[in-house]
Specification:
alpha+beta, 2 domains, 7-stranded mixed β-sheet, 3-stranded antiparallel β-sheet, about 35% helix, disordered N terminus
Length: about 230
């Protein structure tokens, strides 16, 4: 029986086996799976949401106000609720617009009436989606609201049978709004040990995972991990 696999600093699996040919094939398979996964993720979701608002000048004071207005427009559009800003928690998030902006620029306002310039702001889509999910808005309505708490945790994910399953697991955590980073640490049998950098506490994260049903929460914990999950087939 092959020995357990461990992951090196690069995140690639290092199989402790006496069969170097099989090891090389597995490394190549995982590498190809991750390369295809990266391409798919890049095309799957927008990197930014764009908000626009007219301005009279490029002054610092007006820019701060305009960024809040641009973000408010994005939140209204993504939530589908024109009255969403009446929620004090949402209003508080919008007031911190500079936390979400990636870049901004100015262009001439094509409208003859009104301000001469248009501020165009690009906001981090993952952060906006996380905000919407935290407040249960738009596509996340009905999901539990969760606190924003930076958390480091480890998770065993079982029933990972092949490279396609491995890619599915990494894709799930990469796309999850509450996972800031995922790092494979170890492989053993059909299970992976992952290090997760979360944007909420572990209990709420596990609750979200259970609702989404891509992974099942294991009934018993696994020694050496904070939580145990099983890939659904």
């Amino acid at each position: 029986m092959d020995s357990p696999a461990r992951f090196g600093q690069t995140g690639c699996p290092i199989l402790l086996s006496a069969t170097p040919v099989r090891t090389l094939m597995l490394l190549r398979t995982f590498g190809l799976a991750l390369a295809l996964l990266a391409c798919g993720l890049a095309a799957a979701a927008p990197a930014t949401y764009v908000g626009r608002t007219p301005v009279n000048s490029q002054s610092d004071d007006e820019r701060s106000s305009a960024l809040r207005t641009a973000l408010a427009n994005v939140v209204i559009d993504q939530s589908g609720d024109s009255g969403v800003l009446a929620n004090p928690d949402v209003a508080k998030s919008v007031a911190q617009a500079e936390r979400y902006v990636l870049q901004y620029s100015y262009e001439r306002n094509a409208l003859e009436d009104g301000a001469p310039l248009m501020l165009v702001a690009h906001f981090d889509a993952a952060s906006i989606d996380r905000m919407l999910q935290q407040h249960g808005l738009g596509p996340y309505a009905g999901l539990p609201q969760v606190p924003e708490v930076a958390t480091e945790a480890t998770a065993w994910v079982g029933d990972v049978r092949n490279a396609d399953d491995y890619a599915r697991v990494i894709a799930y955590f990469t796309r999850n709004n509450f996972v800031r980073a995922v790092q494979p640490l170890q492989a053993q049998g059909d299970a992976l040990l992952l290090k997760l950098s979360l944007a909420t506490d572990l209990a709420h994260f596990v609750e979200i995972v259970a609702l989404e049903r891509a992974l099942a929460v294991a009934p018993t914990p696994v020694e050496g991990a904070d939580t145990a999950l099983t890939l659904q087939h």
